[in-house]
Amino acid sequence: MEIVDLKRVDELWAPTQPYIVAQIMDEYGKTSGDALELGPFAGGIAIELKKQYPGLNITIADEQPEVIDFIRQKVARAGFAGKIAVKKSDLGKLDFKDESFDLVIFRGAFFFLPEKENLLDEIFRVMKQGGLAFIGGGHGRGVPQHIINEIASDLRTLHGKLGGRYLSIADLNRVVSRSSIKDKYLIKEDGGTWLNIRK
């Protein structure tokens, strides 16, 4: 993925971040704990979480060095250098111990789920008992329609350029059926399509 494209995606998604954070935190139900945001589109949600919920210990991880550098710069510009950890990790074999996180977030995961067969198992492995994973994509619940209208065309173009794919609910269920989380998840079509995993 080209960094220039990630920067543009970041700019387009920025107005939606507070809505996604509100939706995640409604599901999570706590104001503290250890949180992990995954993937090349990470950073915006983590920064918004840290602004609103300073009691969260937040880590961001991706597998591409140039993406990690970009995310580190974004975190520093937001004033959270040293307050949000940014680490390199293979998405198919997360470089974290078992039961490390109360909350795991991966927006844009549908780009990767069909190829990263271990991803859901790895997310489940690093979740603590009682933890929540919030995986998928969308604008978030309650985003005003004018915001969606303003960014929709550019996002569609970038989505295609970045190799994005749309998974149907049937596709998503098939991906999940190949993992170990078969009875631990719900698919919610609310402000997007989200796979919620609970441990």
What does it look like?
The protein has a single domain, classed as 3-Layer(aba) Sandwich (Rossmann fold), CATH 3.40.50. The mean pLDDT is 92. A seven-stranded mixed sheet has the order 3-2-1-4-5-7-6. With 199 residues, the chain is α/β, with parallel strands linked by helices. Helix content is 40%, strand content 24%. It is globular, with a radius of gyration of 15 Å.
Task: Give descriptors for this structure.
alpha/beta; Rossmann fold; 24% strand; 199 residues; single chain
- Give me the CATH fold name: Rossmann fold
CATH architecture: 3-Layer(aba) Sandwich
Number of helices: 7
Give the overall form: globular
Task: Return the string of H and E elements.
Answer: HHEHEHEEHEHHEE
Write the layout of secondary structure elements.
Blueprint: H1 3-13, H2 17-28, E1 33-38, H3 44-52, E2 56-62, H4 65-77, E3 84-88, E4 101-107, H5 119-126, E5 127-137, H6 145-161, H7 169-177, E6 185-189, E7 193-198
Parallel strand pairs: 1-2, 1-4, 2-3, 4-5
Antiparallel strand pairs: 5-7, 6-7
Short account of what is shown:
It is built from 7 helices and 7 strands.
